[in-house]
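By way of example, what follows is a protein record of this kind.
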Amino acid sequence: MARPDNLHSRLVSWLKILLPLVALVMLSTLFLVSRTIDPSDAIPYSEVDIEDRVREPRITAPTYAGITSDGAALTVDAAEVRPGAEGSPDGSALALQAELDTPDGASTRLVAERGALDQAARLLRLEGGVQISTSTGYRLTTDALSAALDVTDVQSPGALAGTTPMGQITAGSMRITQDATAAGGYVIVFGNRVRLIYEPQN
């Protein structure tokens, strides 16, 4: 076999021998100087009390979204939801926020400290200082409120107070629903000893 007679050929021949040797030395060094793993240094993935979660199961930061039969979009967020009694589809929630966007372009925002889902009645029940705000300028507060999941129907069976575009209002009940006299429209109806203090705009 003829010997290489130029610098390039000789260099290639030496590199074919040296490069594999260098690779073997590097791999051996990795294993020889590798740090011993201490299991106690493992990163804690969660600080959640597993026993507490097993004893009281819950869902953190859930979101519900749906469309009612009349075309309104309903979105509900909560900080935490806990299931109801064993075998029950219902559940209780904390720090609820709901947004109802009706087809006429208006929106209603509901905020409550706690609530519950009643699957049988298809209702979301809100309690604990429920705040109601609408894109049309209503800002109201009540103790309890219910919102249907399958149709636009928000009701406050108890007393409420707040402000409207016309002034301050107090009433014994309130309902947000479709307008029976105008197709595609929605109304806020107050009842039971309604008192409005009219405040005209300057």
